[in-house]
Structures are given as C-alpha cells and as structure tokens.
Amino acid sequence: MAINYESIEVNEMSPACGAIIEGIDLSKDLSNQEFSEIHKALLDRTVIVFRDQNLTETQHVQFARRFGDIQPNAISGFAKHEKEPEIDILESDADNPPYVTLDLWHTDFAGREKPTLGTVIYAKDIPPEGGDTIWVSSYAAYEGLSDRMKAHVDGLFAYHNAYQNYDETVRPELWEKDYQVYKRESKANYRPALHPVVRTHPDTGKKGLFVNESMTSVIKDMDRRESSFLLSYLFEHLRTPEFQYRHKWRKNDFVIWDNRLSLHYALFDYTEHRLMHRVNIVGSKPI
Ligand SMILES: [Fe+2]
Hints:
Blueprint: E1 9-12, E2 19-22, H1 32-45, E3 47-50, H2 57-65, E4 79-80, E5 88-92, E6 118-125, E7 133-137, H3 138-143, H4 147-153, E8 157-160, H5 172-175, H6 184-188, E9 193-196, E10 198-200, E11 207-209, E12 216-219, H7 224-237, E13 244-247, E14 254-258, E15 262-266, E16 274-281
Parallel strand pairs: 2-3
Antiparallel strand pairs: 1-2, 3-14, 4-5, 5-16, 6-14, 6-16, 7-13, 7-15, 8-9, 8-12, 10-11
The structure holds fe (ii) ion (FE2).
C-alpha cells in the first residue's frame, strides 16, 4: 500500500513489517501533522524505528502518552526507573539472563484482559554482537493461511495464560527469587484471558492471527487434542521468515511497535551488557 508522507521518510525494512523513519528529531515538540504521520507509519508497518534519538526519560514517557494512557507500572515485574517509574528497566548480560519470555514468541501482556496497545523501547546500551529482536506481522500470518484454514479459525476463541511457562511446577527456580511479577498474590488473583483467535485491529479493521506460543493454552469448545494440534500448527506458521522483520539494535534506537497484531522474539545470544528502557501503552479488549 503506497502511503504519502510529507514530514517523515519511511523506509520499509521487509515486505511484511518494519520501517526505519528518517527526518525527525523526537526531542523537539511534534506537530499534529508529524504525529499523525508517525501514527500512520506505525499502523502500516507495525514496528517503526527512529535512529540516533537523544531523549530524556520524561520525553520517552511523553511520546508514549500521545498514543494512549501508560500502563500502570505494577503490572510488569521489571525494575523501574528511579525518576520515571513508568519506565521498565530491561537489563541483561551473560550473568543476568532475561528471566521471562526467553526463547518464546509472544505478544506482550496477551494473558491479560486488555493486552497493551504498543510498546516504546529506547536502546540505552547494546552489546557489540547479538541481542536482535524479531517481530512477526500477525496480518501477514493470517493472510498466509489458505481460505479453508481462515474459515476454520475465524470465530474461534482461545485462552491465554500468562503463567503457563513460568509456573512453579515448570520453572521452580523463578519462585525462589523475589521477582515482583511472580508474587504469589498476583498469581492467586490471576485468571487466563479469553481472546479471539482472529483479531480485528481496532484502527485498521484488518484481521490478524492472535495466538502465541508463550501464553495461548487451549482453544475454547474444541477437543483438547484438536486444540493442541491446531495451536502447534499456528505457532509453527507464525515462525515463517517471510512474516518477520529482524532488527539489529544500535544505541539510541527508539522503537515503537503495535502490539495488537504482532508477535516478537528477543534473542539472548550475547554476553555483554544490554540495557533497554521500556514504556507500555494501555490497550483495549481484543475483538
Ligand atoms: Fe515482549
């Protein structure tokens, strides 16, 4: 789809999704025209990258707030920034591996009633090698299904359980540590969320596949084995390279992705320090 931009340059990075945006300094106040073009680029490309940005923590949060309310910080278990507690600190190296969503494709907070609308990440320190993130376009994945399979999955609902890969029985070592996200009280009050398998994007009206191997546990009203085979197939289908954009991070990259119809995978193939600041935007109930 050809879209005309006047105040920014949008360089598409793969057919399915991803773009690098040139010609804008996000530390300056954005005009309505600039913001609406950025918003359009996000809807069109799912993940957009601004290189070499120089922003304060407050400006990071303010940028995210233009897209919606900021997700209350207690929802995620990450450490918070001292000055701007709405910023999650994602920090790892060989001695401190990321402890969640490791080697699992996922959509952030899909196990909640209202998964986040999007995520804004600011790359503060990047290892010399490794640490890429791969995004998958859920639109491309849905479009890549045969018409027969589309008809089969349209109208189905599935449960998303945020804890299925982190439960005490699965990863007991996590529960010995005091990570906030695994506090027993929050788990005691947690119930899996029921979402449509094919989600319609509230802004674009386009359909995408809304299941992920990290959280989607079972398809409602299906025999358990049918559900398990169908989900395995869909998870496999979602790994198709043609649906992806793989981003090699640079320090001061500022990235926003539309979490409503995408999945991502953060590679842990590095030993040196990696530090990201993350802000999550409140989303709506999938339809
Ligand atoms: Fe994530």
